[in-house]
Amino acid sequence: MKAAVYRSFSGPIKIEDVPHPTAPASGVVIKVMATGVCRSDWHGWKGHDSDIIDHGLPFVPGHEVSGIIVEVGIDVTKFKLGDRVAVPFILSCGQCSMCSAHNRPTICEKQEQPGFSMYGSYAEYLALPRADRNLSIIPDSVSFIEAAALGCRFTTAFRAVVQQGGVASHTTVAIFGCGGLGLSCVMIAAAYGAKQIIAIDVSDLALEKAKEVGATDVVNAKTKDAREKVAELTKGMGADVTIDAAGFKATCEDAIHCTRRGGRMIQVGLPIGDQNPIVPMGMIAGKELEIVGSHGCDASDMPKILSLVESGKLDPKKLIEREVTLEQGAKALMDMDFGSPIGMVMITQFTDAPQSKY
User: Fold this and answer.
1) pLDDT value at position 358?
2) How many Å apart are CA 123 and CA 268, to the nearest integer?
């Protein structure tokens, strides 16, 4: 089968013939119908991810994926050949203490992640373990491209905004960073009827998109003081919930300082490098702020998110910028050296013959 492969970090990603996968006893093989080009895949390709380093090279990236089951493992009971499935990027084990005793599968001690701990979805076919626990049937009215878009950015945003942030109709939320994850946070907050959604970024194009998908207010942190502007927009109170969806030192610090007394700051953007934020612990104690981490999404919540799409409350297509071939997707990943697209790039053609995303 064809797959996009890199053999050195930051090296060329080439389309190669690789062995066809086989289904593990607990898992399935899917024919990949759509897979997203995500900044997290770029981090992996650059050598920033310890799971890929531990796995070793060569490697196949890709973790936002949907497809059709073409092989079923002997122990699988919930799925059959031909099922259309959505895949979360965290495949939890269900047996470690985090899964079984604490019901925290997003921090599973033995989690597998396509495109990080195992070969990913930039390929014609993908083997997935732990199918019964982690996969979800895609409703007939939801396309493969919509389901793939949910696999990382929207599911991660759902946990950050709804579960960790508790955003609801009465909430004022400030979202720092309007890349794919931040824009997904804006859309999830809008889907849950947040009273005020303030989007902060340094790109006017990104802020324009944020306004288009549900932000009530936007702030360009390059031209305005983000802390002063959020205070002004919230009548001096600060936001009920702030979300750092970028992972930079500045966005983390601004998010903390823009949180109201007794409010909650969610750290969902993953920092890289050694630029650690200055965390004002005295202020956090004095204002009783909560700082909460957020990582991925529990696979059992995927049906809820699919139902948001099915009902029309959430429209991932608004973030799809273009559909590309496998070769073009590999180039789009490498081109992230020069910046990220505002919307999502989705690989939907894996051979010379185009395939339908539906």
Assistant:
1) 36
2) 28
Q: Tokens 């690789």, residue?
A: 18
Instruction: Please list the alpha-helical segments (H only) found in 216-292.
Output: 226-233, 249-257, 281-286
Residues in contact with 204: Cβ distance below 8 Å, sequence separation at least 6, in sequence order: 220
Q: Spell out a b/e string for 192-221, using b for 16 or more CB atoms within 10 Å of the CB, else e.
A: bebebbbbbbbbeebbebbbebbbbbbbbb
Q: Which two tokens stand for residue 70?
A: 């073409």
Q: Would you give the DSSP letter of residue 152?
A: I
Q: In what order do the strands lie in the sheet with 172-176?
A: 217-220, 196-201, 172-176, 239-244, 259-267, 290-293
How far, in Å, CA of 171 to CA of 299, rounded? 26
* Cβ within 8 Å of residue 303, ≥6 positions away: 136
**Residue of 221, 14, 4, 194 lying closest to 115 (CA atoms):** 4
Query: CA–CA distance from 111 to each of 45, 50, 89, 134, 244 (Å)?
Result: 20, 14, 10, 11, 24
- Joined together, the tokens standing for residue 164 give 């960790």
Residue 68 is encoded by which pair of tokens?
A: 């059709």
pLDDT digits (tens, 9 = 90+) for 277-307: 999 999 999 999 999 999 999 999 999 999 9
Q: In this model, does residue 355 exceed pLDDT 60?
A: no
Query: How is the chain split among helix, strand and coil, in percent rounded to 5?
Result: 35, 25, 40
Sign of the Cα pseudo-torsion (166, 167, 170, 173, in order): positive
Under the banding of pLDDT at 50, 70 and 90, the label for residue 274 is confident
CB-based contact 31:346 (threshold 8 Å): no
Query: pLDDT by residue (tens digit) across 73-122?
Result: 999 999 999 999 999 999 999 999 999 999 999 999 999 999 999 999 99
In the chain the first and final C-alpha atoms are separated, in Å, by: 21
